[in-house]
Design brief:
This protein has 271 residues and is of the alpha+beta class. It folds into two domains: 20-87, Winged helix-like DNA-binding domain superfamily/Winged helix DNA-binding domain (Arc Repressor Mutant, subunit A, Orthogonal Bundle); 96-270, 2-Layer Sandwich (Beta-Lactamase), CATH 3.30.450. The chain is 44% helix and 18% strand. The protein is built from ten helices and eight strands. The strands form two sheets. It has a six-stranded antiparallel sheet, with helices on both faces. The protein has a two-stranded antiparallel ribbon with strand order 1-2. The longest helix has 19 residues, at 20-38. The two termini are 34 Å apart.
Length: 271
């Protein structure tokens, strides 16, 4: 999701009441955000996206390149994110204990059934992917590392929303529009509440082509030592291997989520 950048407001005298270094930093971060969204982009396109003069964009890109935050892209005249951002990103990810606890479990599920496994955490009204292991059958394009979905869309986000307090369901519904991704997406308040209640009842969420046609997933909540929602684990792939008869995806998912929760200090007997 793009970062919202606002320019400092001017006083009646016409002078900016914002701090100049902060304004420059905000513009630089805006460029990084647009490069992240586009993957590979020209300065001209960046100027258009950011609403800045080309001269400003060229100057900022030169500084960012010197800091190794951007680098020339594979096509002449384009820019991509720099490797230093990858290192910084990994440092941020390393703070999450749930990731360290989840990785062995995710790898085991992946090795047993060959499907894509995801680990998500909550960020406001969204769920953000902080780890994934790509499946051997199909490489799902949705929800890459750092990608996000609203809490009502997909199994992993819904697994977190379902086990939040019902009062938080109301808050979510008051603030987030239920946009459709496919013809099977949940788009009404009544549909969502019914699905959240069903998720609580069976202990896992089901996404049956409601985010990507032909793709299904199952997701389960991960709890911490206080019994609070810490993250969610999900397994996704083509519909039949996930939801078809004989699939072990749900069994392995529930075992895995429980194992990660225990590693984070959750007492299942107190649930």
């Amino acid at each position: 999701m793009p970062i919202e950048h606002t320019k400092p407001r001017k006083t009646e005298s016409g002078r900016s009441n914002g701090n100049a270094p902060v304004a420059v930093l905000s513009k630089a971060v805006c460029l990084l955000d647009h490069i992240a969204e586009q993957g590979e982009v020209t300065p001209a396109r960046l100027a258009e996206l950011a609403g800045e003069p080309r001269s400003t964009v060229y100057r900022l890109l030169a500084s960012l390149q010197e800091l190794e935050l951007v680098e020339p892209g594979p096509r002449r005249g384009t820019y991509v994110l720099g490797v230093k951002l990858f290192r910084l990103g990994r440092a941020v990810v390393s703070r999450f204990d749930e990731r360290q606890a989840a990785l062995p479990v995710m790898q085991r599920i992946h090795d047993e059934i060959g499907e894509t496994t995801f680990l998500l955490i909550r960020r406001g009204y969204e769920a953000v992917c902080i780890e994934r292991i790509d499946g051997t059958r199909v490489n799902l394009l949705a929800l890459g590392l750092g990608g996000s979905l609203p809490l009502h869309a997909g199994s992993a986000p819904r697994a977190m929303l379902a086990f939040m307090a019902p009062s938080e369901w109301d808050d979510y519904l008051d603030h987030v529009p239920l946009e459709a991704y496919t013809s099977k997406s949940i788009i009404t308040r009544e549909q969502l509440i019914a699905e959240l209640e069903a998720t609580r009842e069976r202990s896992y969420a089901i996404s049956d082509e409601d985010v990507t046609p032909g793709v299904a997933s199952v997701g389960a909540p991960i709890f911490d030592h206080d019994g609070a929602i810490r993250a969610s684990l999900s397994v996704g792939g083509m519909r039949e291997p996930i939801l078809g008869d004989g699939s072990r995806a749900i069994e392995l998912l529930l075992e895995g989520a429980a194992e990660i929760s225990r590693a984070l200090g959750h007492d299942m007997r107190a649930s």
